[in-house]
Structures are given as C-alpha cells and as structure tokens.
Amino acid sequence: MTDAPATPEKRYGTAGDYVQLLKPRIMMLVVFTAVAGLIAATGVTGQTMHPMMAAIAVLAVALGSGAAGAINMWYDSDIDQVMTRTSTRPIPSGAVPREEAIAMGMIMSGVSVLLMWLASNWLAAGLLAFSIFYYGVIYTMWLKRSTPQNIVIGGGAGAFPPVIGWAAVTGNTPLDAWILFAITFFWTPPHFWALSLLAHSEYEKAGVPMLPVTHGAKATRLQMLLYTIVLAAISMAPLATGLGGWIYGVVTGVLNLAFLYYAVRVWRSHAGDAGAPGADQKLARSMFLFSILYLFLVFAALIVEHAAGLHFPVGGF
C-alpha cells in the first residue's frame, strides 16, 4: 500500500461525526430488512412479539449495525485516509480518535447483543453477535485486504438481519428466513461492484484487492451480470414457499427485469475501463443507485403483504 498522507490537524468531533462512525445509511437498510424478517415471520407463522419487545429487538439490530460500522472505521482508518472518497470520515479527518471509535464499537456490540437476548431469545442474540463479528473481523480485518472475493464472502454479514428478525419472533430459522438471507447475499456483489467500477483507482491506490483492481473492469461487469441473474431467480423463491404472494411477485418481477436491464447494459459498456465514456460511468452509478431501491422495494413488498393483510399466495405453488 502507498504511504498514507500526513495525519490531519486535530479538530473537535461533533455529534454528527460520531453518528457517521455508525454508517447510518447502511444501518437504515439493515434495520429495514430486519423489520421485514420480523413482520414476515409473524405473517407466516402467526407467532407475535409484544410491540415493546419488538421495538427493543429492532433497536438492538440498529446498535449492532452501528457497532460493526464503528469497528470497521477504526480498523480501516489507514486506507480511508488514502482514498479521496473516504478521507473526510471522522477518524482520518482527525475528528474522532481511533481509541474512541473502537471503544464505542465494542460497548455498542455488547449492549446490542444483551438487549436482543433480553427482548427475544438466545438464537437471535447469537446471530446478532455473529453478524457483528462477521463484518468487524472476518470481512474488515481479513477478507477485505486479502481476496477479490471480499465482497462476495463478506456479504454474508449484511444478509443476516432478516434472519435475526425472523429468529427474534419464532426462535428458529426456517427455509424462508434463509431465502431472505440469500436475496441480500446475492444482491451485494452487483450492488457494490457497480460502485467499485467507479472507484477502482482509489482501491488500487489503497492496496485493497477489489475485483476491478485484480481482474479488471471487463471481468467485473460479467460477474455483475451473472450475480444479477442468480439474484433474479432466488428472489422469486418466496413464491414457491408461500412466503411471498401476488404483490411480492409482481413487484419483484418488475424490479428483476429492471435490474437485469441495467446489468446487461453495464456488461456491454466500458464502465470502469481507462478512458471510459462519461455515459458508461454514469450507467454504473445508475445501477448502483437502482440496486438500493431494488432491495428496499423487494422487502417493502413483503412488509406490505404481511403487515396489511394483503398476502395472497400464488396458485400452483
């Protein structure tokens, strides 16, 4: 890795800096998918949680997500300082000391797992603890800097929330819960690689072996297409198990067509190549932004069906 710039001049951290340590945008998606798992479990099994306990369980997921984010920022502060996109984060900018970030992450980890255990059960608490460890240690400290498959394998960390939400309600994790895991897992590579195509030079400068750096943009675009095809198939699995109904099927089917449209166009483009046209780079960014909308609407469809009594199974399955 190249030498890092000089340590920036110390500035006082604000409340906003400490919030940024928690990666709030990631936290919102994590919490949303956890809520979807919780609500879907209630709709499928008929089991319920006391509203207060459910709220505490969701809070525990949010705290756990924030804890993992703080641990990630603590460990990655050296490469964050090298990359222009991340150089203004709280630690490399000098707003928050590294020791405060790791202390915050560790304390929040313990509190989140304890709250989940008190509000629900040991299985949900254990899954939450493992997901924090997965992101903070397995992905951040090992995979991210050692393999171009870092996003693929590491994507498991972000795929656990709906399983945790399901386990909080039922105390078990049946096939339906793991289908929700798989949807998020296979969504992660095309989502993140779309961004990596735009920032591959930054990752190369920081010594991070993202796929566009190690195998080139062309290979990355092909992998994005292949993972999107797999995602499209897996996302329709809830229709076969009865987890998803007509609303889910229609919404997800349309979203899959749109996602595949983006993936094919990016595959045929020169996005990420040296000297790529601005339109191709813009296309990769559009796919990245659409992927966020995709995940939100897929899980929103499940929430609407099971929370509003609009779950109508598709005949023939």
Automatic annotation (TrEMBL):
It is a multi-pass membrane protein. One of its GO terms (biological process) is heme O biosynthetic process. GO terms for molecular function: protoheme IX farnesyltransferase activity. It catalyses: heme b + (2E,6E)-farnesyl diphosphate + H2O = Fe(II)-heme o + diphosphate. CDD domains: PT_UbiA_Cox10 (cd13957). Keywords: Cell membrane, Heme biosynthesis, Membrane, Transferase, Transmembrane, Transmembrane helix. It is found in: Cell membrane. One of its GO terms (cellular component) is plasma membrane. It is an enzyme of class 2 (transferase). The keyword Nuclease does not apply. It holds the Pfam family UbiA. The chain crosses the membrane at residues 26-46, 52-75, 101-119, 125-143, 150-169, 175-199, 220-240, 246-267, 288-308. Its EC number is 2.5.1.141. Pathway: Porphyrin-containing compound metabolism; heme O biosynthesis; heme O from protoheme: step 1/1. Belongs to the UbiA prenyltransferase family. Protoheme IX farnesyltransferase subfamily. Carbon 2 of the heme B porphyrin ring is defined according to the Fischer nomenclature. Converts heme B (protoheme IX) to heme O by substitution of the vinyl group on carbon 2 of heme B porphyrin ring with a hydroxyethyl farnesyl side group. This is Protoheme IX farnesyltransferase. It comes from Hyphomonas jannaschiana VP2.
